[in-house]
Design goal:
Layout lengths: L1 H21 L25 E7 L4 E6 L3 E5 L5 E5 L6 E7 L4 E6 L3 E6 L6 E7 L5 E5 L6 E6 L4 E5 L4 E7 L1 H4 L11 E6 L6 E6 L4 E5 L5 E5 L3 E6 L5 E6 L4 E5 L8 E3 L9 E8 L5 E7 L10 E6 L3 E6 L4 E7 L13 E6 L3 E5 L21 E7 L4 H15 L25 E6 L3 E6 L6 E7 L19 E7 L4 E6 L4 E5 L16 E4 L2 E4 L1
Length: 526
């Protein structure tokens, strides 16, 4: 009996051993086992095209030329919504306080996004076959979305079902029947603040009409001059920015003539491309517009801020202006209010200007929009960075960055950031073409600037040298976390050794000349 048990046990052991040999796995990892994937995108949105703001949820959305929508909010809220195609996002509109937004793309598709859930998705899409969208509009709590086309027609979309309505405003019904000239595309649509059945329409050739949705009656105000408009909160007046740089105020009951004409910068000015008209509770008006400068003042993009016709401030911008939007406190357009700030979207930058502080300083952007302020030439990444080093960089950097910025908190505070799953501290260093080195906190999903170091200020430029030889561009960064030594190499052959100190010090710097050769990205001295 014992012998039989031993034989059975031996047979089972042999079966187990044979099974183990067959289940052995190849432990060597090959290229097919891993892949790189994008998780987070940092820096300014590539090719921005449009912008929208949700007044209730305090979120800002930027549409780009590659099918991406960037949604920005409070600390840690910076997400990208990617369409299936790379078609440019031409127009964007929030459905305020609904956790949804509408995008119109260059491929003639209109999408309804839902970002209430963890992973934003497109709920519905409408494909246009014969016309292209030129503007979209939606009023707070309205059941309808309006969009105009390049053929001059206005269509209506039911928000609940996201289907087209049979109701259409054809261009030949909105324009005087005696006029045979096509007015061009629809450039803007806006609902009256006090009468939701009335739509103000602006056409490409400067025609402005007020359409009654119930009676299909139309009032025509201006022909061939308007480039933009903005409602007064009482719903009885609106303001037009014109082709000659003037501002015209119209009363909806007197379509025959304007009631007021303003020329903020005199006669013979450039066209006003966008205007906003606000009033405070005590009646003080605030007018913000882009363009409208004298023709001999140059081509620099500008933004003008007027208060009660007494104070006029012109802000000269560094990049071409795409759009601006007021950061209002209330979503209701029928109440008097003055925005605390305005968001200004430019070709290569995003500014949020404080309107409550004299001089109109900018808010410090909490999102890393300036990572490519000067072209990045090299990067260096460090994990498990000492916490005291990060704290020291943040402390010094906060004093460095506060100069020139508004003291008010960042006004775009919507959303909630996801908790970081990393248990260690990460540091990213970027070397730039202008000779500076930037230190970034990279522990979370989004980069946060800690400190900016200018490595090129210790060297003089030689006018006799070629431009590439005299460049202070940073080409290599080496940091030792233990000794706290930083070595920075520049394009023109300069090497700078920095030592981190707990206290600020001032002393002479010794410059030594050495001959170096570079092989495979490494410096060798002779």
């Amino acid at each position: 009996m014992d012998r039989a048990k031993k034989c059975l046990a031996s047979a089972l052991d042999g079966f187990r051993n044979h099974h183990k040999l067959e289940m052995e796995l190849e432990e060597k990892i090959t290229a097919e086992d891993v892949c790189l994937t994008g998780i987070v995108r940092h820096g300014f949105p590539d090719e921005p095209r449009c912008m929208a703001y949700d007044t209730v949820q305090r979120l800002l959305a930027i549409g780009t030329g590659h099918g991406v929508v960037r949604v920005i909010g409070g600390v840690g809220v910076d997400y990208c919504l990617k369409h299936k195609s790379d078609a440019a996002v031409l127009h964007i509109q929030f459905l305020m306080n609904e956790g949804a937004l509408v995008t119109a793309c260059h491929d003639d598709l209109i999408h309804l996004w839902n970002f209430r859930q963890k992973v934003p998705v497109v709920l519905h899409s409408i494909q246009l076959t014969k016309e292209q969208v030129t503007c979209i509009s939606h009023s707070f709590q309205s059941k309808w979305l309006y969009f105009g086309t390049e053929r001059g027609n206005v269509y209506f979309v039911n928000i609940a079902t996201f289907t087209l309505s049979n109701y259409t405003i054809n261009w030949n019904k909105a324009i005087d029947l005696g006029v045979r000239t096509h007015p061009g595309s629809v450039k803007a649509i806006s609902t009256s603040p006090t009468e939701l059945s009335k739509l103000l329409l602006l056409y490409e050739k400067g025609n402005v009409v007020l359409w009654n949705l119930q009676t299909k009656e139309v009032d025509r105000f201006i022909s061939g001059q308007a480039r933009c408009f903005a409602w007064h909160h009482d719903g009885r007046q609106f303001m037009c920015g014109t082709v000659d740089g003037s501002l015209l105020v119209w009363n909806i009951r007197k379509p025959g003539e304007c009631t007021q004409k303003l020329q903020p910068h005199g006669q013979r000015c450039s066209p006003i491309s966008q205007v906003d008209w606000k009033h405070s509770s005590d009646g003080e008006q605030l007018i913000i517009f882009s363009g409208g400068m004298p023709e001999d003042s140059g081509v620099s993009p500008t933004l003008t801020i007027m208060r009660a016709s007494k104070s006029i401030t012109v802000l000269e911008l560094d990049h071409p202006l795409i759009a601006f939007t007021s950061l209002n406190a209330s979503p209701y357009s029928s109440v008097s209010q003055q925005p605390s700030a305005i968001a200004v979207l430019m070709k290569h930058d995003l500014l949020v200007i404080d309107l409550t502080t004299p001089g109109y300083p900018c808010h410090e952007n909490i999102s890393p929009m300036d990572i490519h302020e000067s072209r990045v030439r090299c990067i260096s990444y460090f994990s498990n960075c000492p916490l005291d080093l990060l704290g020291a960089l943040a402390l010094v950097g906060s004093k460095q960055r506060r100069r020139g910025f508004s003291d008010k908190p960042w006004p775009i505070t919507g959303g909630s950031g996801r908790d970081c799953a990393m248990g260690h501290q990460e540091l990213l260093l970027t070397g730039h073409e202008d000779g500076c080195v930037k230190f970034w906190q990279a522990s979370g999903e989004h980069l946060q600037i800690l400190y900016k170091l200018n490595s090129g200020r210790h060297f003089e430029r030689n006018d006799g040298m070629e431009s590439h030889e005299a460049s202070h561009a940073v080409t290599m960064i080496k940091l030792c976390l233990d000794s706290r030594l930083l070595l920075v190499a520049g394009q023109s052959g300069q090497l700078t050794l920095f030592r981190f100190a707990k206290t600020e010090s001032s002393h002479e710097i010794t410059v030594r000349r050495r001959k170096f050769s570079v092989l495979d990205g490494q410096y060798y001295g002779t």
